[in-house]
Structures are given as structure tokens and as C-alpha cells.
Amino acid sequence: MLWAPLLHIYQPPTQFKKVLEKITRQSYIKIVEILKKNSRAQLTLNICASLTEQLGKDFPKIIVEIKNLAKAGQIEFTATAAYHPLLSKLPKSEMIRQIKLNSEINKKYFGREFAPTGFFPPEMAYSAKLGDVLEELGFSWVILEEYAYPGEFISREKIFKRKGKKLFVFFRERDLSLKIAYAAINTIAKLEKYLGRQLGKPGYLITAMDGETFGHHQKGLEKFLADLYKFPKLTSVKISNLSQIAKLSQIEEVEPMLSTWGITETDCRNGIVYPRWDLPDNPLHKLQWKLTNLAIKSVNSPSASSGSAEPFGLELRVERLTVKDPGPRGRQKTVNSQQFKKARNLLDKALHSDQYWWASHNPYWHYKMVVKGADMLAAVVKVSPTASKQDKIEAGLLREKIASLGLKLYGDTVINH
């Protein structure tokens, strides 16, 4: 049976250096070693530019080793968003910017080996609008949560494609992925019992989970990963291989549903798509998203008075910009492009999804990470030359409300298990 494993590795731009060092030793280095020891082992790897930058600074050797594994054909990269935002909740311009930033930064570190054809949405957060953006940018496939499938049963002998579109859609095997992630399946014997007769049938398995699962979240589970690659009844392949072997008769057209990989069947029935990032009855989430939308609004799309600078372009090469005043009269004003660039770049990082995840208290909670996220979003508004005075005041107040309410509701004790 074909087994297409995807590992997603990422750390937010607000991560503490000591935590990064710990995770790298416990997980990333061990995963690389497993692949190096088994030349037939193949992996689809999603690495956000946010993590690439941090590893490039503090652990450059692992960047080189990942690059070499990609060069050897053992690793294929996926594209994603640079700083791990929930793309399905962002404007189209921000979606495209994050995706292009991710490619720009990862190519800087991995060179021509970084040439992804597939896409991993952070938190597997998907919407039809994101699907259209991926089509527009020329990606071949996207991986989604099983619950994004609009039918009742996913045939693992079929390949799926967006209805009337070119984009292939792969759905992870949720139950198996979670059982491995939580170490409920941690031996080959348990895996064989779980899969039963499925092992002898044609088809494929797609497991997708955080790479940090192996060795960091679950101590010793990296040994099971090594065993999986040695298991003769599974042949590891990259996800792109699955679309290449598809026959026309095996393709089913679908329109994936709005989804994330944090949802449950109960959430689906209740119409809850973002249980750990935008829960309807979570007061902190309401404040966070209000501040997030304010930060996005405060970084207006400028039109340069001279030179060349595209709206939301990755580089600004002019000293002064003429922009629309965000005030009630909407008149033109000139602002310093370097100040705008500072706000623009800060917003890229400030959109990371971890701040909402830690604020969910569902069940995880980290007061300092929530406050650091609010600090970054508020700072965007504070430094943005296109933000109004009232916007800056409101951003400061929202930041204080998030910090004080979070402390009042849940205290400052970290809940991470």
C-alpha cells in the first residue's frame, strides 16, 4: 500500500529561543537523521518561512541537510503562508502576499530545491476563495482535512479534483493521523491491527500532522516513524506522486467545504469552523480578531507618487508615498515609505495563528504568547503612517483589554498538555 506522509513544521515569529532549541534537538534533527539513514524514505514537508528564518539563524546545518534530502529526491516541499496565518480569514491581497513571501524566503535558504507544486494551508484552513487563489497562482494540489470532503465516504482508491477546476485535492486520513499524533498507535503491531485488511487492498494512505509530534510532543515516537519507513507493507511516496499515477477514471470532482484541521464532527454539525482560533463564545477571540482587522486596515494599499511600487508589493523602492488619508475626508497625504514598510513587514509576522490558538483555552493556554501576539498587532497600527489617531488609540485599548481579560479569565499558568 502507498503511504504519503506529510509533516508540517513551524514555529511562530514570537517563539522563545530556548523553546526553538529544545524542539530542534528533540524533533527536527531526529527526523532528518531518520531520512538520512533510509534512502528509500520519502516525505512531503511543509516548512513555513517563519521557521526557516529562525533555523537559518540558529541551526544553519539542518537547513543544509534538508536541502540535501530534497536534492536527493527524498523530500518534496509544499508551498504555504510565510508566517502561518489563517488564510481563509484574510483578504485576497494578504493571502497572495503571504504565499509569495513564503516562496521568496524559502528559496533564499533552499535555492532551486524549493520548487513546490502543492500547497499546505496553515491549520488546513480552507475556503473556496483560497482555492481560487491557489488556482490563480498555478499550484497543482492542496491538502485538506478529511471533513472538508462534501460526501460521506472518501475512497482511498480515487484522486479528487476541484469541480470544474484544475486543482487536485488530497484529504488526510484524520483518524489515523490523530491516533499517531497522540501516540494511540505507536507500534507496527497496533498499526496492522488498525488497518486490518486495508493493508492488502489497492489504494493509498495520507497521514498529515505536526512534525514536532515526533520526539517533542511525544517523546520516543520518532522511533515509530523510523519503523514506519521500514515496514514492508507500506511504500512511502510523496503526495505529488499520487496525482501523477491517477487514471482519468479514478478522478472524482468535488467542491471542498470551509474547514480547518481542528474541527470535529460536532463542530461541523454546529457550524463551527475555527474552534481553536475563532470560537463564537470566546471573548478573547472577539477582541483578537477586532485588533487583527484593525491592523490589516491600518496598512493601506499605497500608490506611489514616483518610482514603482505595487500595492502590497514585497519591496518598496521609493522614499515617499502618496496615499489616501484614512480620516473621514479621505484626502491625499504623503508618508515616509520606510515607515510604511516597517508597518507592512510587521503585519506579515503579526498575523500568525498561534496567538488565537493559545487564547482558545480549548484546552491550551499561554498568557505570554497571547500578549506577545496582541503587542505585535497593536505595534502595526502604532507605527503605520496610514493609520488614524483614533485607530492608534483603539489598538492600544484592545491590546490592554486582551491582556487584562486573559489574566482575569485564565491566569498566567501555561496549559500545554
Provide structural commentary:
This protein has 417 residues and is of the alpha/beta class. It has helices spanning 17-37, 49-58, 60-71, 92-110, 128-136, 174-181, 188-195, 221-230, 239-244, 265-270, 283-298, 337-350, 354-359, 367-383, 389-410, and strands spanning 2-9, 43-47, 75-77, 118-119, 141-144, 159-162, 168-171, 204-210, 235-236, 251-254, 303-304, 320-324, 332-336. Helix content is 44%, strand content 13%. Strands 1, 2, 3, 8 and 9 form a five-stranded parallel sheet that branches. A five-stranded mixed sheet has the order 4-5-7-6-10. It has a three-stranded antiparallel sheet with strand order 11-12-13. Helix 1 packs parallel to helix 3, helix 12 runs antiparallel to helix 14 and helix 14 (367-383) packs antiparallel against helix 15.
Helix content: 40-55%
- Using the 3D structure, state the CATH architecture of the largest domain: Alpha-Beta Barrel
How many helices? The count is: 15
SSE arrangement, N to C: EHEHHEHEHEEEHHEHEHEHHEEEHHHH
Span from first to last CA? Answer: 34 Å
- Briefly, what CATH class of the largest domain? Alpha Beta
Q: How many separate domains?
A: 2
Q: How would the global form be characterised? A: globular
* Strand elements, count: 13
Instruction: Predict the CATH topology of the largest domain.
Output: 7-stranded beta/alpha barrel
What class, by secondary structure content?
A: alpha/beta
Reported for the largest beta sheet, the result is: 5 strands, parallel
Contiguous runs where pLDDT drops below 50 for at least 5 residues? 302-313
Gyration radius, to the nearest Å? Answer: 22 Å
The whole-number mean of residue pLDDT values reads 91
Strand content: 5-15%
